Amino acid sequence: MPNAQIPVLKEDKPKRKASKRIIWILLLLFIVILSVLFFRSTMSQVTEVHFKGNTFTTRDELLKASGIQVGSQFFGVSPSKVESSLLKVKSIQKATVDKQFPGVINVTIEEYPTVAYELAAEGDLQAILSSGATVSVNNTGIAVEKPILTKWNASDPNKAALCKVLGQIPNELTSDISEIIPSPTESFPDRIKLYTRSRFEVITAISLLKDKVEYLNQVIETEEPGIITMLEADSYVPFEPSGEENGDQNATTHE
């Protein structure tokens, strides 16, 4: 009987697809573990919040308005949402949020400029912003070159319009104005009276002030104190010297 040939058993070849699958599963598991460890560490949290440019709002007020909390997830802070939330604060005109990994958030605040001041009913001094909003004056002090608004109703739309106009005029053109009061007429519902530190009395309208303010400064720089009218036409009348009035009175008395 011839020798029977026993077939050679084939060695099992490793299944490459199965090996790759195991590698990918292990790699994914490793990434998941690292992610869990990362998000539980302080590196993924907000560790510092810095505000810059705020004078009328405190840090605590800004933190509350922005919704940012130290210890919250750094990647969960949306700059656009924080900026929108801060714009709801009446003194803030613009807010910019800059995130710096790891954990630092810088917020730059741009407030509406102060255009005037007003005494509250309690006697406290308040700053009036170009937006028309009124805020309490804190330890930042006051700008002495800003006018005082008196006899204005808080609900008067002309008051808000005046603040907007004052915010559009360069500071050097309004620095001599010390007081502004409402003085409406049928022809000019937005008529106002201004009093200057150089002792001029000015009659104008809110809607005309921006265009007329240069004439005001020209008269102040070249003429003696008097009454300046800046409505449909501009005019200037000097005050009568008190010395001549007293002289006339004395002369009449002596007679």
Automatic annotation (TrEMBL):
Gene3D superfamilies given in the database record: 3.40.50.10960, membrane protein fhac (3.10.20.310)
TM spans (from-to): 21-39
Chief location of this protein?
A: membrane
- Subcellular location as annotated: Cell membrane; Membrane
* Record flagged with keyword Cell membrane: yes
Q: What does this protein do?
A: Cell division protein that may be involved in stabilizing or promoting the assembly of the division complex.
Q: Which family does it belong to?
A: Belongs to the FtsQ/DivIB family. DivIB subfamily.
What is the protein name stated in its UniProt record? Cell division protein DivIB
- Organism of this sequence: Paenibacillus cineris
High-level lineage:
Bacteria, Bacillati, Bacillota, Bacilli, Bacillales
Q: What is this protein's gene name?
A: divIB
